[in-house]
């Protein structure tokens, strides 16, 4: 972090600059943003475009926190599609991706987006004179190695984005398995006319899909098999002719919708027309999509609904509606915030068509969004103070009247593992139903020694990490920290080394209340003058961090007071550039000082010993004189 501006530093940084180190973490396992599409690292596919001269591709970065964040956007050839973006608190930034970036080669392209600490949302918009699509991008920690891609009535293009070197097995339904190998930043595009394709990789990958006739319009990112679920509410827009489709993953899975039910074998597709908001329930987890125009939208099951969603709205050419589903008892507290102006959601709610025998009480509403007077793209947030709900965004292009159904950032993107019922002592954040009560991970504090259990029938918020201790920190000229010249700057939570050591921060890592909020806790070190190792171009920092719960006092570091040398002495570390050779010179100088001091000490000891001997000799001389005098007196008396 730059010491003067408090802005994260990306790329090459000149030596001699004053910086400080910063460590951030999300203190709670179950924050509203912890398991949804909020994250710190993203991979985004940008397919080749036939109408690139008519396309506007925009990345929107949404910052839900109360502090500014810096976001880095990278591509394979180190050419940044955008400069690093600074996003203000509770606001958004944008990156207009140059479409020439996508025409250098005919293959797909990938972009990597990262933020240092704070959780961000990313929304990708593709706009042309006739079409419009918008999708949320899933963070890396929600991606997986196993996917099933459901095709629509048209051929489907599957785009696989490789985060690292990996091998990927692709098996079309009714076809033969084939394997591809990919490298970091590499994408692989595959067209399929099969009902679905199975994709299994050695390492985590991101997968996008679109209909081949859509030419990029309607591109969507998929969630993996771990996001399969049992209860869905399928959205419905007036005048639309949409279709739903579900894929079973286990044999003898019964799927119920309305008064109908079916029990296909594993790997079978079931589909139907969407004529109203409708509930769909299965006895085992299934994957479901809804098809609207050229857009294939993955559905999130009931346990992945969230209490808050944020998204960007264009101020012209597009009209919007929200398709909302929520339990009847909670419908009156929904609030839509557009640029700080809040409106309570009202309207004529309709009951969702229930599955026969279902006790659910879902209601739905189709809500138009009024953007009258809005002259810029705006940030909108739909939220409820306590209840989870589902929302889809229906966009209509005012020129072509084409409609796009899309998700918005906020859906929880990981599996809750309710089906992984294990009668074992769990831990906070394990996402396992450890007491088999049908609710995953409602772990609560069991005792004051920070032992957590998942108690049957008890459902309350998880406890949070209260603090951290930065145990040990090393700086090194290489990423493997195996170089003999690496330096330890923090040890056992305390600043390490002499005060003149150039890598040493001016103070320990301490909690920074000015940059922390209710989601992210920030710890900052004291000021450091950025120095380099002699003969190396890079500098790496590695720290071991200890997390503490409420009753754990092991994070209470007490650094003993060290005797510090006078920094105003004749040999201070000043504003000059310090390198490793300078460090060695300082060390040699210190050794010279030590040798000089030792010499003076030896001379002093010798002088003291000499003085003592002199005193002893004088004592004996005096005594000898006294004895001689007494002897003379005795002789005189005798005579």
UniProtKB/TrEMBL annotation:
It comes from the Eukaryota. Keywords: Disulfide bond, Membrane, Signal, Transmembrane, Transmembrane helix. The keyword Nucleotide-binding does not apply. The chain crosses the membrane at residues 598-622. Residues 467-560 form the ZP-C domain. Signal peptide: none annotated. The keyword Signal applies. PANTHER family: DELTA-LIKE PROTEIN, ENDOGLIN/TGF-BETA RECEPTOR TYPE III. This is ZP-C domain-containing protein.
């Amino acid at each position: 972090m730059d010491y003067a501006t408090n802005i994260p530093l990306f790329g090459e940084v000149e030596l001699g600059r004053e910086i400080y180190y910063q460590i951030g973490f999300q203190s709670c396992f179950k924050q509203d943003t912890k398991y949804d599409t909020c994250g710190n690292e993203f991979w985004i596919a940008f397919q080749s475009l036939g109408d690139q001269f008519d396309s506007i591709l925009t990345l929107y970065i949404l910052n839900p926190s109360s502090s500014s964040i810096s976001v880095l956007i990278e591509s394979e050839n180190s050419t940044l599609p955008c400069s690093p973006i600074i996003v203000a608190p509770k606001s958004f930034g944008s990156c207009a991706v140059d479409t020439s970036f996508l025409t250098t080669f005919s293959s797909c392209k990938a972009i990597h987006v990262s933020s240092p600490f704070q959780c961000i949302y990313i929304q990708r918009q593709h706009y042309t004179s006739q079409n419009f699509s918008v999708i949320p991008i899933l963070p890396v920690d929600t991606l997986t190695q196993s996917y099933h891609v459901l095709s629509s009535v048209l051929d489907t293009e599957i785009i696989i984005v490789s985060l690292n070197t990996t091998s990927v097995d692709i098996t079309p339904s009714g076809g033969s398995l084939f394997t591809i190998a990919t490298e970091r930043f590499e994408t692989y595009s595959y067209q399929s006319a099969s009902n679905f394709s199975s994709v299994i990789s050695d390492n985590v990958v991101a997968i996008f899909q679109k209909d081949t006739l859509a030419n990029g319009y309607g591109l969507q990112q998929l969630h993996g098999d771990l996001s399969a679920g049992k209860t869905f509410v399928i959205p419905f827009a007036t005048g639309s002719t949409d279709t739903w489709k579900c894929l079973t993953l286990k044999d003898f899975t019964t799927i119920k919708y309305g008064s109908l039910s079916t029990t296909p074998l594993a790997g079978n597709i079931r589909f139907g027309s969407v004529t109203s908001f409708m509930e769909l329930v299965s006895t085992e987890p299934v994957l479901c999509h809804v098809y609207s125009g050229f857009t294939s939208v993955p559905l999130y099951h009931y346990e992945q609904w969230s209490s808050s969603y944020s998204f960007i709205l264009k101020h012209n050419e597009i009209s919007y509606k929200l398709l909302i589903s929520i339990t009847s008892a909670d419908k009156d507290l929904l609030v839509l915030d557009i640029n700080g102006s809040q409106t309570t959601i009202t309207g004529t709610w309709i009951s969702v068509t229930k599955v026969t025998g279902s006790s659910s009480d879902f209601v739905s509403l189709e809500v138009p969004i009024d953007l009258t007077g809005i002259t810029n793209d705006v940030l909108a947030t739909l939220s409820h103070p306590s209840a989870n709900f589902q929302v889809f965004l229906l966009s209509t292009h005012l020129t072509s009247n084409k409609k796009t159904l899309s998700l918005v950032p906020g859906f929880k993107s990981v599996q809750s593992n309710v089906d992984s019922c294990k009668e074992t002592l769990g831990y906070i954040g394990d996402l396992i139903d450890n007491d088999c009560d049908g609710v995953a991970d409602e772990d609560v504090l069991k005792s004051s020694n920070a032992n957590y259990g998942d108690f049957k029938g008890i459902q309350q918020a998880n406890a949070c990490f209260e603090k951290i201790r930065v145990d040990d920190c090393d700086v090194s000229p290489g990423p493997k920290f195996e170089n003999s010249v690496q330096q330890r700057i923090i040890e056992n939570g305390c600043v390490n080394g002499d005060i003149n050591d150039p890598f040493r921060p001016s103070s320990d890592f301490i909690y920074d209340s000015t940059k922390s909020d209710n989601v992210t806790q920030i710890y900052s070190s004291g000021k450091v003058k950025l120095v380099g190792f002699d003969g190396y171009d890079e500098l790496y920092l590695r720290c071991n961090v200890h997390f503490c719960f409420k009753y754990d006092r092991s994070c209470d570091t007490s650094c003993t007071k060290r005797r510090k040398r006078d920094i105003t002495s004749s040999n201070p570390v000043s504003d000059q550039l310090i390198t490793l050779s300078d460090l060695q010179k300082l060390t040699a100088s210190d050794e010279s000082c030590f040798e000089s001091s030792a010499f003076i000490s030896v001379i002093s000891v010798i002088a003291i010993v000499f003085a003592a001997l002199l005193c002893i000799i004088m004592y004996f001389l005096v005594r000898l004189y006294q004895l001689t005098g007494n002897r003379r007196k005795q002789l005189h008396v005798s005579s």
